User: Which sequence fits this backbone?
């Protein structure tokens, strides 16, 4: 499921705000940052994904980003409104994807969401 562009964080300033002012929860495979937007009417949830070159080449990084986005939006019904999220993939994420596929990534994201809601 492709998410509309407006539901993505794209500017470095948006990422920086989530990193600086948000809360985070880490698992072995990823770090999830959460930032509640207070002054906006828009209820939508927005997502940014960061995958380092340590994960692999461009093809591998893009594959990891696609899997992370798909798993994240699969959990959309459990996400609080008016929040920005940034997922930072750790190098071990490739092992998780190869071993457990989408279900493993979704379970890991759920774990991070459960721990990352304390804002």
Assistant:
């Amino acid at each position: 499921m492709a998410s509309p562009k407006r539901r993505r964080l794209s500017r470095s300033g948006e990422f920086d705000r989530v990193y600086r002012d948000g809360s985070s929860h880490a698992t072995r495979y990823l770090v999830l940052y959460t930032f509640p937007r207070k002054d906006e009417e828009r209820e939508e949830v927005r997502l940014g994904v960061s995958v380092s070159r340590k994960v692999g080449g461009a093809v591998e990084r893009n594959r990891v980003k696609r899997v992370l986005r798909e798993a994240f939006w699969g959990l959309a019904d459990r996400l609080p409104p008016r929040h920005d999220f940034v997922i930072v993939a750790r190098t071990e994420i490739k092992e998780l994807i190869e071993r457990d596929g989408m279900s493993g990534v979704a379970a890991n994201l759920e774990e991070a969401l459960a721990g990352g809601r304390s804002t």
Summary: The chain has one domain: 5-116.
